Amino acid sequence: MEFLKEALAIKDELIAARRDFHMYPELDFDLPRTSKKICEFLEKEGIEYFTVAKCGVVATIKGQLGEGKTIAVRADMDALPLEDRKQCNYKSTADSKMHACGHDAHTTIALGVAKVMNKNKDKFKGNVKILFEPAEETSGGATLMIEEGALENPTVDSVIGLHVAEDIPCGKAGIIYDIFNAASNPFTITIKGKGGHGAHPDSAVDPIVIAANVINALQTIVSREITPTDATVITIGFISGGTAQNIIPEEVKIGGIIRTIKPEHRELVTRRVPEITEGIVKAMRGTCEIKISEGYPCLINDNATVDLIKDAAEKVVGVENVIKLKAPSMGVESFAYFSNAKPSAFYVLGTRNEEKGIVHPAHGSLFDVDEDALPIGVAIQCTAAFEFLKG
């Protein structure tokens, strides 16, 4: 199958769809227009679908050669609360909303996969499901999608997904075996002391000084309790407390996030943060409240499925254009919920083009993608899905 040729034939349609999504970004689970556009596209192509997770969409393409396995292709749909500062004719029309992470491209590629695989459904057995996930940038719609049956009827055997990569040139793809993304645990610490006059610190219990000691001590978990060759991050994102230079406040709040790539390190760090914090706070005469949340789990690739992606990408862009990534990302990704549920593979699609000025980082107000990557993404996904069902 020459999937790249078929994808290139619909390139203009892909670009138009991506620009439409880019101009009208929506956030979190509040994606009525995005969801409607996806459903309209599927109806036009004669593809059956159902909605899940408030505004998520699950499409199913049934091969006409009979019963077989089922592979799912996942795309996220939501944008970010960010002002679009690009100067182009498809700039976001919504105030403080922007597709600054490429989800518009992911959704477009998935629609392209649906169109091409539906056109060729007489050539394969089994099923292709397309999972359009909301709220990836917030709480993750994947868990709700799974709970509401996105991976059932027919039962999904494997899931594949991609993310655009602004640091990899357009025309290339990047793969990694085993761990792709870190797990995360957001936390907040409220330290309570005794307020007082700045001129008389001896009559107060200063929560700012306590907080400073806690922040410094937490970094020793990474530097002194984790193997130096294993990546772990404890980031303090905010500290707030106090109202004036000469007043010792009653309390200080600290907020941060833990990122780990091994389950045993996740357990260690989430245990040691309270132990260290409580010890320091008690020693310095204060009290504290600590809340650690369960963020996204590690995204762990199934290596056999990575081989499937590798082979597909090599067929589409050539062996020399498939890059093996050197290390996992400390970012998080809700695709991890799918990878925990089924054998899965996540990879990156190059969208950088210095000649076009497409060099700006994701989650930034100038972010863009080289749209020449759209048919490449469609072709890789289609090739992988077809080979999986054939094999």
TrEMBL record:
<dbReference type="InterPro" id="IPR011650">
    <property type="entry name" value="Peptidase_M20_dimer"/>
</dbReference>
<keyword id="KW-0464">Manganese</keyword>
<dbReference type="GO" id="GO:0046872">
    <property type="term" value="F:metal ion binding"/>
</dbReference>
<dbReference type="GO" id="GO:0019877">
    <property type="term" value="P:diaminopimelate biosynthetic process"/>
</dbReference>
<feature type="binding site">
    <location>
        <position position="103"/>
    </location>
    <ligand>
        <name>Mn(2+)</name>
    </ligand>
</feature>
<dbReference type="GO" id="GO:0050118">
    <property type="term" value="F:N-acetyldiaminopimelate deacetylase activity"/>
</dbReference>
<protein>
    <submittedName>
        <fullName>Amidohydrolase</fullName>
        <ecNumber>3.5.1.47</ecNumber>
    </submittedName>
</protein>
<keyword id="KW-0378">Hydrolase</keyword>
<keyword id="KW-0479">Metal-binding</keyword>
<dbReference type="Pfam" id="PF07687">
    <property type="entry name" value="M20_dimer"/>
</dbReference>
<feature type="binding site">
    <location>
        <position position="137"/>
    </location>
    <ligand>
        <name>Mn(2+)</name>
    </ligand>
</feature>
<dbReference type="InterPro" id="IPR017439">
    <property type="entry name" value="Amidohydrolase"/>
</dbReference>
<dbReference type="InterPro" id="IPR036264">
    <property type="entry name" value="Bact_exopeptidase_dim_dom"/>
</dbReference>
<feature type="binding site">
    <location>
        <position position="101"/>
    </location>
    <ligand>
        <name>Mn(2+)</name>
    </ligand>
</feature>
<feature type="binding site">
    <location>
        <position position="363"/>
    </location>
    <ligand>
        <name>Mn(2+)</name>
    </ligand>
</feature>
<feature type="binding site">
    <location>
        <position position="163"/>
    </location>
    <ligand>
        <name>Mn(2+)</name>
    </ligand>
</feature>
<feature type="domain" description="Peptidase M20 dimerisation">
    <location>
        <begin position="187"/>
        <end position="273"/>
    </location>
</feature>
<dbReference type="Pfam" id="PF01546">
    <property type="entry name" value="Peptidase_M20"/>
</dbReference>
<dbReference type="InterPro" id="IPR002933">
    <property type="entry name" value="Peptidase_M20"/>
</dbReference>
